[in-house]
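Hey everyone, long-time lurker, first post.

I ran two proteins through the pipeline my lab uses and got sequence/structure pairs for each. Pasting them in order. The first:
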Amino acid sequence: MNLDDKIKNALYEKAMNISPSDAMLDSIKNSVGRENIYMKKGFTAKKIIALCAAICAIGAVTAIGGGKVVTMSSHSSRLDDIKHFPTQAELSKIIDYSPKYVEKLGKYEFDLANPAENEEKDAEGNVINKYRDISFWYKTDNGILTLETKPDTHTEEKDGEPIEYKGKTLYYSSIKYKFVPPDYELTAEDRELMDKKELEVSYGSQEVELKDNASILWVDGDVQYCILDMDVHVPKDELIAMAKQVIDSDPQ
């Protein structure tokens, strides 16, 4: 079973809690790397969407304290997959906002859409926000390419390389994931890259493997968007062009 399948399953099943800053990244690392559950190719596990939300959250650091959001949980099911390109009328029955989305993202064709239930909590564990969001998946030969959308709750400080476009700031981020066996010992190079926030190490795989992740995040109106590339290796300029394509698109 290849690592792509492991990622899809582990993220779908286990990436449930997202915490800010280093704690958030540790949560993602643990969710991805320490579950040896397998799946067949084709997004057949239940909660892969939670993993993608987590990766995109790297570019949106949640504020802490004073009634602010500290953790977020996300739940979705393959039973809710929409396997045709939906209309806004259809989405209005599922979510409370109207996102922009496209049937073809760059050269990649629409595959499916998946809604999720989300809950945000403060430092005391009090639920301060609940909402449904939806993500759009695109067909690739390798890896995962998604357009994540959610209501903009104004609780997050955006992080990443800023790119200005039509009065909006897009934030580009990239990071490598190194999947390693349980007895793997970090090298000096590993530690250096981790200190630079250029590498995350996840334990639990049978052999050492590297995966590349890139994302671009922005807010348009009352909606937050994130395009996530998990080992598809879309060039940076093309990923930026995809974001601009969504921004320029007409409502469905």
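...and the second, right after it:
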Amino acid sequence: MDIAIRENERIDDLQYKGLRLIQKTDGFCFGIDAVLLAYFAQVPKNGAVIDLGTGTGIIAVLVAAKKEPARVVGLEIQDDMAEMASRSVALNGLQDKISIVRGDIRDAVQLFGPSSFDAVVTNPPYMEKGAGLLNPEDTKAISRHEILCSLEDVISVSARLLKPGGKFSMVHRPHRLADIMYNMRKYSIEPKLMRLVHPSPGRKPNLVLISGTKGGKVELRVQEPLYVYDSSGRYTNEINEIYSRDPVL
């Protein structure tokens, strides 16, 4: 199948099972946070999962390949991003497993119905609305700032989309952790597993991976810190494993 590649786009090799992803050369591109979430996400095998704010489709593609769900839906509000993500799905021959839907996260329950997914994964905008001057039409701004949806929107919608016992997994910034846990409990998603991500030993964490269970019992397990780089500035063996690279000897 011939997949159109636009003038301002490129194809990146994900270095995992031959997967590739179309990205804009001058737009928002996926980062390590998306890769770590796909690795960390609590997704039952043969279940139905939705990626809220799928963007380039990177999480949907990696979750489909790594977790083996029955189906994945990627929901994206930006027309151009949704169209590009659909082409990446076709590029990888995953049309029978992944559906990219153009729509607003806040309308997700109306689009798909309540209690319709076994798992929700999301890499939402990190920055609160009002943090700096922004162009509301800018792709990067929409991806990074709470312009079109808030953290509470994401969590409340996730709770309604999940079946009882369903799993919610998210990557975010540690400085929003109090808000994250407050809203998870507010909407009956009990925090169950958390891991802080540090750039290297001795540096403070800059990402948090967190998952919870819809209607789950109270018990939060905190995993050991994940370090991206070792003291010599090389990727740690665990990061190489996540990226399916050879470990450093």
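Reply from user beta_strand_b:
Welcome! Quick read of the second one: The two ends are 41 Å apart (CA to CA). Helices lie at 32-40, 58-67, 79-91, 108-112, 139-144, 151-161, 177-186, 237-242.
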